[in-house]
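Box 3.1 A note on notation
Throughout this textbook, protein chains are presented in two layers. The first layer is the amino acid sequence; the second is a token string describing backbone geometry. Keep the layers aligned when reading.
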Amino acid sequence: MLAIYYCVIIVVGLLISPVLLFKKRARAGFSQKLGFVPEQVFTGDGERPLWFHSVSVGEFNALWPLLRELHEKYPSLPLAVSTTTETGHNLARERAGSFARVFYFPYDLPWSASNWLTAINPAAVLIVETEVWPGFYQQCRQRNIALLIVNGRMSPRSYSRYKRLSWLFSRVFGCAAQILAQSDEEAGRYRDITGSGVPITVTGNLKFDGFKPMPPAEQEALRAQLGIGNQLVLIGGSTHESEEEPLLKAARELKEKGIDARLILVPRHPERFARVAELIESYGFRARRFSRQETFADGRDVYLLDAIGHLMRFYSVADVAFVGGTIITLGGHNVAEPYTYSVPVVSGPHVQKTRDSARALESLGAMLIARDAQHVTESIVQLSGNPAQRKQMGESGKRWVEQSQGAVNRTLALIEKTGVIADSAKLAEAKR
């Protein structure tokens, strides 16, 4: 069965190779993904690090509170972090590069995975959320490397797909030593696929533990740095193609109503920064860019946060937030983050990737899920003119986020029980 899977992967890889070679985003880390290990990653020192894999920015942001706690508690513990995307890789290097090896996750080809498993020689591999690679999982099992899924997430759509092919995915997930799920719903979906062979525990969502607000003095300093006074501030976080327009329309409508508002746009992908700057100008606004250290001058400006890793800080200056990936059919990004600062969220209808959070927040009256792009504009305008509603929504969401925290401690305790931390730390100490 695995041989057939590898043949399919190779054929598909050959068919899409032009994209991989000529599209910049797909080309990032290409040689590493093929199995070439740089000397700075392979030290040959005999250590057995814990290998964490987080696909992109969202998954690394979820991992970061656990990674930081792990390093603070066990400073001699060797750590390795892999990502798939360039933006995730850059963020991981920026935050964890001082104490962890950071590299690109290999394609699920026998030689690619084997080269990296040999080079890293991990005591355990910990997959953040759900990345399902049958060949890689099987190689971990064959090498007796503990494989854990942490912050496990399985959307209803993924569950349906895995259920239809349960004869395959029950074996794949069966390679895991433990699955630490975000919620009871996720745990139930995992159990239905895996049966009783894999221990599954609900630990909560790691992302919530990363929601630590900046001190008020820093928030005020950021407002001053941006040139924001007492104006209403709208922010569009992690936006994709076609998702900035409803926000620009809302800002234009508020301006026509005489409401002094400021709009901040934060595209998800760096290659869209220039395009969004042009879009801002096409709506009659002036684009002010973070990369040029520009600030708001007046209501004719729209601020473009053209950098990665700053979105959470910028939520602190907002009064209303839109979270992207929800007007397009992507399925949504993290709708809970803005509530760190009691900022109410408006989203589009496509929230399947963050369904549990969105459903909980909507049921509390803390979040507005719009029907379409036009309804996003209408919802933002309506909420902008109702400070009492904004306050109620923001406070309800913040209480829910605070009640949802604690996943880092629960996850760390379960990882410690496996013994992989102690084994890796002892080996590292012996090598010193």
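The mean pLDDT is 92. The first strand starts at residue 50 and ends at 53.
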